[in-house]
């Protein structure tokens, strides 16, 4: 059999497939080599010849050949053309395209106990469906009103500096100008006491949680977790093999006096005092001081998650726990995902002086740094005043959307659900009547193209309250009333 005949007999291309033709050709030849239909040493047709025989572009054949050569299936030598590589016989196995493999799992290869535990953390609903935002996804800022042109200009300007440190490995805990900008902003806006050295720039809130937990929590240590509380934090604590102890939240925030008895003191206390996630309450000053005193008495660390404190619509924000702390026991964390856009993947930690060196070393080991060029552009964005201007615009916009959502819920749904109206944030809980499952309502809402999250999933114990977590910040005004109308249809399906 001639080489062209052998190749053509092994190739079956489908121009209607979503898989690119070069990838189809690559896969066909690879499989034919592995199952022995194309033998070692067989000379492959020139790319131009094969392209003509298959009625495809020559570049398609060249791309497939290049990939096969790179992976060792073909060999190319000057003067002798391209040939099938001499693959050892034990690799000639019966195989199909990689997309169709169905390999039986080997029981010896399994997840770790920590990996299995992480799988128990429920995922939040997606924020986009086929590229379109839907009401009422929580945690989403207004992406359509972000100053994209300004951001693109700043990013492009930094990209035109190829000789700068932005293209090497030396940033460590963050781009110096960004750390300075964050320290200055937090001092003015949140009363955080820190300098640039205390700021550790990370690849988002989840990276901050993971890094902080790795450094202060050992397997088996008790971690206090708000009940209900943020599922992402729960995942980080499970990954550290911590013993998670749910502590109830009341109208003043996390209540240390309500912690379950008979347990050893916590190594870490995780809380969201500015805007509790998901109930939305603000921790009172009395409770803040009591929590700091308890942590100092027991030697516990406090991890303060200040995820969306920029958006407060009534009164002045209370000072951060970190700003009230005088014993160096608070690790403060924030994120740019809520203030700017989620894909920026930049968060930050503010750590006490005695932890700076440990965090500096650990972040180099874990590699949880965001891209340097993005950090530099963000520093410019903050230092040139765009950040504070954007926050002011969004605070006003989100306040209007919050009022509109509350009005439409009252107007269209009346007393069928009871929304809470927290003083800040980007979302609110709406409580369901007794006996109604928020899982059922969320499933019905999904059928009506409304995204809501079940508050019951934020609980670790069976003492659950059933409510819908409704975001408003990223929902354009014209979508709020129709969204509430569709939510009403979903409630009706569930007998509400």
Can you characterise this structure?
By secondary structure, the chain is of the alpha/beta class. Helix content is 39%, strand content 13%. It is built from 16 helices and 16 strands. The strands form 4 sheets. It has an 8-stranded mixed sheet, with helices on both faces. Strands 13-14-16-15 form a 4-stranded antiparallel sheet. The protein is globular and about 85 Å long.
List the helices and strands and how they pair.
Elements lengths: L2 H8 L10 H14 L12 H8 L3 H13 L3 E4 L3 E4 L28 H6 L9 E2 L2 E2 L14 H12 L16 H15 L8 E4 L2 H12 L5 E6 L3 H9 L3 E8 L2 E2 L13 E4 L13 H14 L2 E5 L15 H4 L5 E6 L11 E4 L5 H11 L5 H12 L2 H28 L4 E2 L7 E5 L6 H10 L5 E2 L12 E5 L5 H17 L3
Parallel strand pairs: 6-7, 6-9, 9-10, 10-11
Antiparallel strand pairs: 1-2, 3-4, 5-12, 7-8, 11-12, 13-14, 14-16, 15-16
Poorly predicted regions are 126-130
**Secondary structure category:** alpha/beta
How many independent structural domains?
A: 3
Discrete helix count: 16
Give the spatial strand order of the biggest sheet: 5-12-11-10-9-6-7-8
